[in-house]
Design a protein that fits this description.
This protein is α+β, with helices and mostly antiparallel strands and 351 residues long. The chain has 9 helices and 18 strands. The chain starts with a strand and ends with a strand.
Length: 351
């Protein structure tokens, strides 16, 4: 049976088709798993998914294929770890999407958005996702996304600081896209999950202050039902799901540099249609390391690469060719060649 698992909240939600309707249930006894560290730990993910699978199958649902929704901060390497963990538990992965894009799909299926640019704010218990996208017929094209973290207590006590943080993040996001806030006359939508609490009530005012217009608030059911809608598309409208999800799953972009602290070269831009491939020529620096970064900037939270590759000593000061592929699941694979186009490293997955 095809089962959709949502790893974007404080509890795991799963959906399946019982023969007459889509059923969505929650594994409320699995708590405390939503941390950035989890998606860096394949063993932890495997243990979590094994427990989730056992709990689901105790209800009589036998899992054969899975659709995963993961948080917006789960990068390419994290999604690859989810995929490997699922396979280790005997679950075949049909597709994997980011949480913000899953919410966009729910909105896309319930609102008349054709020909419109939309700014979606999705508020969770301790972070908020922002997604800027445009709808053109059956194509949902993502321009860019970002995430801000906060604590409930600090947000409620100092709403002005949360507003400033949001304004700064939105300006940075739009600047990266070569745009200004409000330039596209965006339609504003906001949704908050059941764990957002009083923080959820702050964001309509924050969005209104940011864009000088009132956002449309969407009931939690839209976000909760995104996986159900996804399952319906996956089962009955395969062409449309390809059009929705193979256009810019690469919402961050990828850059590569030679050595920690070296200059970056952009490999994939935001708004990239998948699958896509590019080759970058790099001169190997003193530390013989290739570094991959999310976006065309170093990671703003940790200032560290999302993946590295150490080149053998004999290639120091030489030029290597890095052939990089972003596949249909948003996983980055690469091959490293020497100046004579001989293989140094065969296909590797960015991790």
């Amino acid at each position: 049976m095809l089962v959709a698992l949502d790893l974007t909240g404080d509890v795991i939600a799963y959906s399946y088709h019982d023969g007459s309707s889509i059923v969505t249930e929650y594994l409320r006894y699995i708590v405390g798993f939503r941390t950035k560290d989890l998606f860096q730990d394949e063993a932890g993910l495997t243990a979590l998914l094994r427990v989730a699978k056992d709990m689901i199958e105790c209800t009589g649902v036998v899992i054969t294929e899975t659709i995963f929704a993961v948080p917006a901060y789960c990068n390419y390497a994290g999604r690859e770890r989810v995929k490997k963990a699922a396979q280790a538990c005997g679950m075949k992965v049909r597709t994997m999407i980011k949480g913000s894009l899953a919410s966009a799909l729910g909105l896309y299926q319930t609102a008349a958005l054709d020909g419109k640019t939309v700014f979606l704010c999705n508020v969770h218990s301790n972070y908020a996702e922002y997604l800027l996208f445009h709808v053109d017929g059956e194509v949902l094209r993502v321009h860019g996304s970002t995430t801000i973290a906060f604590t409930k207590e600090a947000a409620v006590e100092d709403a002005n600081n949360l507003l400033k943080k949001t304004l700064d993040e939105l300006k940075a996001l739009y600047a990266e896209l070569g745009m200004t806030v409000g330039e596209k006359d965006e339609e504003l939508y906001i949704m908050a999950d059941e764990n957002a609490g009083p923080v959820g009530a702050l964001f309509p005012r924050i969005m209104e202050a940011s864009f000088a217009k009132t956002p449309t608030s969407i009931e939690n059911e839209i976000s909760k039902g995104a996986l159900s809608l996804l399952m319906k598309l996956a089962d009955f409208r395969c062409d449309q799901i390809r059009k929705c999800f193979l256009v810019d799953c690469c919402v961050e972009g990828i850059s590569i540099g030679s050595g920690v602290g070296g200059d970056l070269q952009e490999v994939f831009k935001r708004n990239t249609e998948l699958p896509v491939q590019n080759t970058v020529d790099l001169s190997i620096s003193y530390d013989n390391v290739l570094c991959f970064y999310a976006g065309n900037y170093r990671n703003r939270d940790y200032d560290e690469p999302i993946g590295t590759c150490r080149i053998p000593e004999q290639y120091r000061s030489q030029t290597v060719h890095v052939k990089i592929t972003l596949n249909e699941e948003g996983i980055v694979e690469y091959v490293v060649l020497d100046k004579n186009r001989q293989v140094i490293y065969p296909r590797r997955v960015l991790s």
